[in-house]
Amino acid sequence: MTLHKKQELYKSLVEKIFSRCQQIQAENERCVMRVNGIKKILRRRTHDLVLLKKKLDKHGDDWRSIPMMGPQPKGKPEQKRRGPKPKSKQTMTDATSEATCKPRKQRVKKQTSDGNATTAHHTVQLQQLSTV
Length: 132
Known about the structure:
Blueprint: H1 3-58, H2 89-101, E1 109-111, E2 117-119, H3 120-131
Antiparallel strand pairs: 1-2
């Protein structure tokens, strides 16, 4: 490659990186604007609640003694959490009863005469070969 081609390649890569950085910056600014808008909505809500409570107290309404029931959410009640799903109690009891009835088989490593660890299967094969 000639020096001119290398410079052109380098320049095009720098321009691509620069344009991608601008895209990311614009997306970050949109996210910040959304977060600030939500904070503003929450501040208005809490302010409105304070004003409503003051007005109800001023009129002598007995609203504090009445149990409050909020509306039930239409979607999922909780935000989706990361990580493994919690196991149900029924599944846990089934798993423990299975474990007590039928233990899992594990390979046991045995030491051979030369000091190397081998599995039981390999030991049996070695014994069969040595008898032949």
